[in-house]
Design the sequence.
């Protein structure tokens, strides 16, 4: 018997991050193992297959989730267009009774950004408690007593403001320490005045993003951060052991998916 779970994330970087974490926990990637072929897709996930053009927009990105699986558990990691994740995932669950009644787990992974993690959780708990009354109201919490299991993780650590790249910088200190140091030195050469002169409107945590991007440009020249997160050692056996914030996130996945039971 195969069990099913959905993990909602805000964007493609988060999708790659969660996918890499699941692979570290023993999951296989449908795109690689089955070449992403529609004919090989589990029928349970067919309602996720996007139509083109999406809402008539020829340039709108198609949002097919990543599918990762073991022999007994299939997980769809759905990227919901940033702050639209609540609305988009709500639409999917609302319009598919099967996803309301036959999931083993539903999880959310979101950035705190400039908000407090508690404030981030409120939007999701208000929405998803409509379907799952015990959806947690606290960051990092997993409800393990009901079906489906539900949980929400607020990056970087359920306590601090920040984004995925904040956590990745911690991983980079272990995986690529020399390059992190040199990248910081490089970025420090650009003063606030220079940034303003070139109209570089940096937002909070953009320095974390720039640090990660600087190293990605060496690891995968011309490729995106998404590809590097999937292919390189930001999330690895080494960083899992030596970066507490990553270890905590992977433990969240274990609890959400009840991996010891599958």
Sequence:
């Amino acid at each position: 018997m195969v069990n099913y779970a959905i993990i909602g994330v805000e964007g493609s970087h988060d999708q790659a991050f969660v996918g890499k974490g699941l692979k570290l926990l023993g999951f296989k990637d449908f795109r690689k193992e089955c070449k992403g072929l529609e004919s090989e897709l589990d029928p349970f996930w067919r309602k996720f297959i996007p139509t083109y053009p999406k809402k008539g927009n020829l340039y709108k990105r198609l949002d097919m989730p990543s599918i990762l699986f073991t022999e007994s558990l299939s997980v769809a990691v759905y990227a919901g267009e940033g702050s639209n994740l609540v609305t988009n995932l709500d639409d999917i669950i609302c319009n598919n009774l099967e996803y309301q009644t036959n999931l083993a787990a539903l999880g959310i992974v979101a950035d705190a950004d400039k908000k407090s993690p508690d404030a981030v959780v409120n939007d999701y708990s208000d929405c998803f408690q409509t379907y799952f009354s015990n959806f947690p109201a606290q960051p990092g919490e997993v409800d393990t007593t009901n079906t489906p299991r539900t949980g929400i993780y607020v990056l970087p650590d359920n306590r601090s403001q920040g984004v995925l790249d904040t956590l990745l910088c911690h991983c980079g200190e272990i995986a690529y320490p020399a390059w992190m140091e040199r990248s910081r030195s490089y970025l420090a050469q650009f003063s606030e005045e220079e940034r303003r002169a070139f109209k570089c409107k940096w937002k909070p945590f953009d320095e974390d993003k720039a640090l990660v991007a600087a190293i990605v440009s060496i690891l995968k020249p011309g490729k995106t951060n998404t590809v590097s997160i999937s292919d390189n050692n930001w999330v690895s056996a080494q960083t899992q052991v030596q970066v507490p914030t990553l270890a905590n996130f992977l433990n969240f996945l274990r609890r959400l998916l009840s991996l010891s039971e599958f």
